[in-house]
UniProtKB/TrEMBL annotation, chains A, B, C, D:
Record flagged with keyword Oxidoreductase: yes
Every GFO/IDH/MocA-like oxidoreductase domain range: 132-254
Family named by the database record: Belongs to the Gfo/Idh/MocA family.
Annotated protein name in UniProt: Predicted dehydrogenase
Highest taxon of source: Bacteria
Any one GO molecular function term: nucleotide binding
Classification via InterPro entries: Gfo/Idh/MocA-like_OxRdtase_N, GFO_IDH_MocA-like_dom, NAD(P)-bd_dom_sf
Classification of source organism: Bacteria, Pseudomonadati, Bacteroidota, Cytophagia, Cytophagales
Residues in Gfo/Idh/MocA-like oxidoreductase N-terminal domain copies: 5-122
One Pfam assignment: GFO_IDH_MocA_C3
Assigned keywords, A-Z: Oxidoreductase
Length: 360, 360, 360, 360
């Protein structure tokens, strides 16, 4: 079996998930190097996962690690810069959501990868989550007739890392962090249908002391094909992760729930170690999730990309889709800022998307 | 026990529910007469429920039936006219949703009842549904901290009566018919907080051949107290009634489901008689509801009104609340029509609310 | 409306439930007196519920209260003695489960009520619980074909009162306290079919320091009509009340859950007042039940009995059914004690049923 | 990566599952040959899955295929004979449930593999199903205190293949086919605790025209450590597969549901292709399962065995456990036949376990 050499960039929460996926489910890949901005963190990560090389300098990694693929799990503001370097070095790129902070960055990244003839995949794992993929296939089989409404919600009580709360690094709040999942999944379900307009409501309800970013948002996306889509996202929702999708068609409906609906149901008087992402407590009733990484579709996603690299195929989830998601994010911030529906295509020259809400 | 004399106006689906409620749960009331526009229907209804008098003329009923209360379960376009007559005749009025077709009618009704010194109650049963009232009390106890978001959804595959589909009689589609539940419940949960703005998305996705009205809508209501509320309503959703509410607070969350979540879960190879309102089939898996009338809060609602009449107390759910709901409906149609957030207070002179969407 | 005069005997947990039922849902009844062994408790209970008379002497109550009905909510060991007195005084009797401690007592009670020409109703509320009655009607409609298996489970973490743990007062442990619900419901569902045999497994797993009684039991009942029935009962199950029933037929299946399945789902960081019977905590996730008394069928049960008294009809749930339940309890203790299936009819002369397990 | 050569014996329902598991999740294994009794079936299976060799003669396969492992997915009556041959040929053996038809066969198989120094693994996939393994780890962490009761249920409407219904080939009915899952899981959860006694109730309720075997059974197993375990199994339950486990401890409880509890919830007016194993229909409401093979633990199970072979480790689920399961099956049939608890150790000389019920 041919093994593709992967360098992981980042050493945070999501990087653990990627490495677990490679190690347990993707024998076709070999993680050969890890990069973190902090030298000790890079080293510790490499040791924990038996990764042979570690770096605290991206350029050095690109030159020396021998990797064919870079898997970018860095904070948003580093996405564009790192992708451009990787493309220049001739490496294939898979990049965590959101694609970039600005539309200009997104365009530059897509362009650079094309010119360098390297693959660029936008790592939207909801496009691979097994339960949601089951739903998509049901819809394709005609189970619910013609789709007229989609809903997607992802909610928890706030991210792990500090940078998420700093809008200069992140570009926005929960919409930037988690709204992108909903938008990406809408495009995926609707075969990249065109968006007609976006309406949005946003607020900072729980983390006002820590961030200027919104921590609760509701966005309505109207597509040109007549489908209405509703995205709900929150960093203010206690009780563990919620990730739900709903499909409404003229002949039926499907509800799918990745966490509560997959979990066992437990009552523990004194609690235990871990229930699911962001569960504050495990005492009393809880919903202990299982195979959390698999059930969110990370292995399926990463395996797909390695296959694309090995067989020279185009990734199904493209940089263009990532850019389209970012355009909806722009439109949603603008809609919330201006208090009206924003029609697409939409573009505005800003340093970060959230400025469209904060300084409308 | 003193028994208050009630005349029922209407003989359709909702009237059955009111009469079952009076008969089984409200010994303090006595249904003495029924009115229907169709003579035979009035008579048949009276016979079915052992109601001593029946009328096909409202004026005659008001003069002769000896009723103290009229319970109006007529199509929307008759709400104002009938209420004005009842008030003039000195009868207390309880009226099914929505309060009226236009804001002008609503104002006239409230005014007339005040002048005639009769009680006017807006019959929003969600304010009495036992599971939702349990939720409201949990919130008041502080179970979820400060509320920042509410959601309410009511969906099925379309109403029974023809007049619902005729926008001249109904004034609008599913928003008029079922959106009013969500808005009424929002005001109830938030102690009549003021609305700041309304955004909306609407479409006719299933019943286009039968109605000009919208049969699917999503509305975002922003309150002045910072709460965001989302109303989802549909006449296009198969598989039986859905009625769900969610409360999000800074220290917790509550999900409540009136139908699927109360029901038993049954698998029947060949089906059986009745599962729940609007269930297309009972073969295969189904969710058979129980004590459907009680669990929706009708007895609690009607009992409350009879108590108000007997003890001369003000109803908790007022004509003013019904008017406020109608104002949100106006704003929602306008928002959908103009593609922007509509700020409240909002008023427009129209024949029916839906004109704000159809002819923006 | 004619009002039947009821005297309540007892002032514990279940008595609150009965009085709430009478007051809210049964205008045809009037609670005229309460008895408790403890004078202060009787007085306090009467004051709390505005009951005009209170007694600490049963004979006195029977002579002076003017009641037509006695509603017996006393500890098991007082059931027979009190029923015999009531019958002698010409009062109708409704009695909480189990009917009696011994089969001899049961026979004497049934006999005495017949001779005195007073009604005796065995208060098995599961025969009236709305969700379970919905299930029974579905089965009668043929929804699941021919029934071949029933399951009923009732579980919590142990009763409120001390006397439940004293086998001299209670006659046994959880089987006596809660197994009777399952057996009563089996007879109800199967139209008083005859039992062929009983197998059982019992243990004291949590309350060994406090009781000699079993606090966990599993009983298999085989009926002559070929139906297998499984009763699971526990005083050792944390996390609040569980009450579930399942029906298996040749053409379908029905699952019904009275508590978790009716409840809202709440997450509360710091908890709130009350979730459901026996819920240890309300912090974290919980299942807040609503209309708990109604949903368990108490009003329906008591209303039925008052109707029987007023209209001189035979109660549907008879003393004979209560006796048949007790016979199954005897057989179950014997089966657990002897380690074999016990065939019915079964009788053994013991002071209390649990002796058949403890001293086989 | 070293790849272990596997020969698959059988070409039925379960064989598809094993091959999907090897191909998608176990790169360490290589399926080199397939055997089926029917030549055409063997060939078709090989072609479908791109397996290079196919055989209709086991001896030939053992000599020529070059396999290191045989994976036996044949009807029960062939288990012993095939295992003995494989051991003799020096092949490692992994074998589908139940281990064998008789205890004598089981002993011979264990003995033969030991003498031949080949590994024998009993393929109980519930010991690897991710949700159940999550539950087991929660219990080990102390989430529910000391376990006092286990429940396991597996039910559907009857197997695919004809041989299951022929007690000469299968040795029994649903207890043999699916009860073994429950018993295997009990031993697994309780660290191979010793069984004290077994009680059982059996009946043929749906498939009486097709089989002499029981198609519904309830078995109570009492362990020496004081744990009570209840196994429910059925071939008479409509509406698709049910596989549920429950753990009751002195400080909590865990409920886990492999099918309904993992599935999406769909309503489809006209139905679609496939919902889950044994779902009769997909019209109306259904529970579409996803990653069915993974969620039942097959890949985890087979991967474990390949690792054992490659690293010369003892499989965690042994032939001895498979034998212990068979002993409980014997005892359960005897208990049902004799109508009493059967104490273990238990042995009886019979041609097939079900004889202990049919001819007690």
């Amino acid at each position: 079996m041919q093994r593709t050499k992967v360098a992981i960039l980042g050493a945070g929460f999501i990087t653990d998930i990627h490495v677990e996926s490679y190690h347990r489910f993707i024998p076709e890949a070999e993680v050969v190097a890890v990069y973190a901005r902090n030298k000790d963190k890079a080293k510790a990560f490499a040791e924990k996962y038996h990764i042979p090389q570690w770096f605290d300098n991206v350029d050095e990694l690109l030159q020396k690690s021998g990797c064919e693929v870079v898997d970018i799990c860095l904070p948003n503001f580093l996405h564009a810069e790192t992708t451009l370097k990787a493309a220049k070095a001739g490496k294939h790129v898979i990049i965590e959501k959101p694609l970039a902070v600005t539309l200009e960055e997104a365009d530059a990244m897509i362009d650079a990868c094309k010119k360098a003839n390297v693959k660029l995949m936008y790592a939207e794992e909801l496009c691979f989550a097994p339960k949601y993929e089951r739903v998509r296939h049901l819809v394709k089989e005609g189970a619910v007739g013609k789709v007229y409404m989609l809903k997607q919600a992802e909610k928890h009580s706030g991210p792990h890392g500090d940078w998420f709360y700093d809008i200069k690094q992140a570009g926005g709040g929960v919409l930037m962090d988690m709204g992108c999942h909903a938008f990406g999944w809408f495009f995926w379900m609707l075969n990249n249908a065109k968006v007609k307009s976006v309406s949005a409501s946003m607020a900072t309800v729980l983390h006002g002391g820590r961030t200027q970013g919104e921590d609760n948002s509701v966005v309505i996306v109207e597509f040109e094909n007549g489908v209405t889509a509703v995205a709900e996202n929150s960093w203010a929702k206690h009780g563990g992760m919620d990730d739900k999708s709903e499909v409404y068609g003229t002949e039926g409906v499907i509800y799918a729930d990745l966490f509560l609906g997959n979990a066992a149901l437990a009552y523990s008087k004194n609690g235990y170690g871990y229930a699911m992402e962001k569960a504050d407590t495990t005492a009393g009733w809880s919903f202990p999730i299982f195979e959390e990484v698999f059930n969110q579709g990370y292995p399926h996603e990463l395996k797909h990309f390695i296959e694309c690299v090995q067989q020279n195929k185009e990734p199904l989830v493209t940089g263009e889709l990532g850019r389209a998601v970012l355009e909806v994010i722009y439109a949603a911030y603008a809609a919330a800022g201006q208090g009206k529906k924003i029609s697409l295509p939409f573009h505005a020259k800003v340093d970060r998307p959230i400025d469209l809400w904060l300084k409308p």
